[in-house]
Amino acid sequence: MIDDPDARDPVGEDARLDALDERLRAARKQEEERTKPMVGAEADENYRAGNRVLAQLLGGIVGGVFLGWVIDRFAGTAPWGLLVMMFLGIIVSFRNIIRMSTRRSD
After folding, report:
1. Which stretches of the chain are DSSP H helices?
2. Which of 21, 28, 65, 105 is deepest in the core (most CB within 10 A)?
3. What percentage of the chain exceeds 90 in pLDDT?
C-alpha cells in the first residue's frame, strides 16, 4: 500500500484550463453582443426603410399598371399602353430605391 500523502491529493488546476475558460467567456460575451436583438431607434429606422422600399415597389408597379390601363381604355391601344407604363413604373421604382440606398445616413 502506498502511504505517500502526495499521491492522494487532488492535482492543482492547470494554467491552460484557466486560459481556456477565459477565452470561452470572452467568446460567449462576443456572441451574445453579436446576436442580441436590436432595440429602439435602430430597429425602428430599419423597419421604416423596409416599408419605404416596399411602398416604392408596389406604388410604382400598381401606379404604372393603372395609368397604362387608363391610356389603353381611352386611346384604344390594347395592351401596349399598359405594358409600357408598367415597365416605366418598375424602372422608376428601382431608381427611387437605388437613390434611397445610396443616400448618406445622418
Report:
1. 5-8, 15-35, 41-75, 79-102
2. 65
3. 57
Q: What is the pLDDT of residues 3-21, one digit of tens each?
A: 655 555 555 677 888 889 9
Contact indicator for 61, 86 with CB cutoff of 8 Å: yes
CA angle 51, 54, 55 (to 5 degrees): 85
Cα distances (angstroms) measured from residue 31 to each of 23, 28, 63, 69: 12, 5, 45, 53
What type of residue sits at position 27? A
The mean pLDDT of the chain is 86
C-alpha cell, 25? 467567456
Grid cell digits, residue 60: 410604382
